[in-house]
Structure formats: C-alpha cells, structure tokens
Fold this protein.
Amino acid sequence: MIDNAILTALRERRSAHRFTDEPLPPEQLDAILEAGRWAPSAINSQPWDFVVVADPGLRSRMGAILREVTWAWAGFAAAPAMIVVAVDPGRDPVHFVEAGAVAAQNLCLAAHSLGLASSWAGVYESAGKGTAEKDIKRLLGLPRTHRIIAVVPVGRPGLAPRGSRRPLAGMVHRDQYEPAADGAVATVAESDPLLVPATRVSGSSG
C-alpha cells in the first residue's frame, strides 16, 4: 500500500479524552492554528474564527458547559488549551458547517503531527436550540450571528487512546452500492478510544 507522512498521520491520529496540565508552547499552538487557517472552504470563503481558551477559570467554565455534549468534559477542561471553532454563516450560508468541520480536522491533524493530542466536542445543532452553543457564545463574547461547530482540546495526553476501523472492504463500493460480502464487515474490537496509560518521553514530540 502507498504510504507517506500524511497518510501515516491520518491512520495514527486518535481522539484523547484526558490531558496533562503541561503548558502548550506558543509556537506549537500557533502552528496548529495556522493549519486551521489553511483549511479548504467553498469559493475560499474562510468563514471560521478560532477562539483559544487557555485561562484556567474559563476552561473550567467551558468544561461545565460541555458536560451537555460530551462525557469527557472534565478531561477537556484539563487540557492547556481549548480551541473553539466558530463560523460566520454570512460568509458562506450553504457550506459553513462543512468548512468548520474541515478546519477542526486540520487542527487535530496538526496537533498530532507535533506529538500532541486533541479531541473533538461537537457543539453545532442544526436547529440552533442547543444550550451548550448559546452558553459558550455568551461566555466568550461571540457574535450572535456566529455558530460554533466544535471545541477542540489540545495538549499532552494523560492517557493514550487507541482504536481500530472497519475494514476497507466493508465500506467501499465500486460504481454502485452493494451489500458487503459475508465476513467483510468485522466487528470493531477496540472502541475509539480504548484508553491505556500513556508513555511520556521527556523532550520528545513523537
């Protein structure tokens, strides 16, 4: 199979749900945000804004809000930074959700490439009735016109996540959809994440 650094990163990235309180170097955070900036968007609309929440008090309040949307809220609040991915639908009324999602994925992949961990708390609700989104917008002073797609915690993993995927043969269809052959769709043995103690290597970003 063809392989390279990007394909390896796509395979190896996992969502972490616990983080250490080790500070995040500013240059690493900037590199992650730069990756988000370069995400694709329809007609290059770039509808996103990133709000970096690093203040411990604000992170604690964010965690309490995220309790509505994820069981891992306490672990997310412990991360040294949470990046709120917000979008302005006025810049792209049709594809703003996809644009925000792609930007969030860029943030996660960039964090992994730097030896850091990340995760994703989905906040967006199409009906716009979710209290988590409203509470975060109020807490961070986001404009009423903006929508929050996700919150991405970033830091050193407190536990190393592992996970597997369904086999390719069970999800790829050529020219038209056909049910998978018997045995092609295997049961995922490891849910994502299956958390195990992380091995810390001083000075390593791998």
In short: The chain has six helices and seven strands. Residues 7-161 form a domain with the NADH Oxidase fold (CATH 3.40.109.10). Strands lie at 48-53, 81-87, 117-118, 121-122, 147-155, 159-162, 194-197.
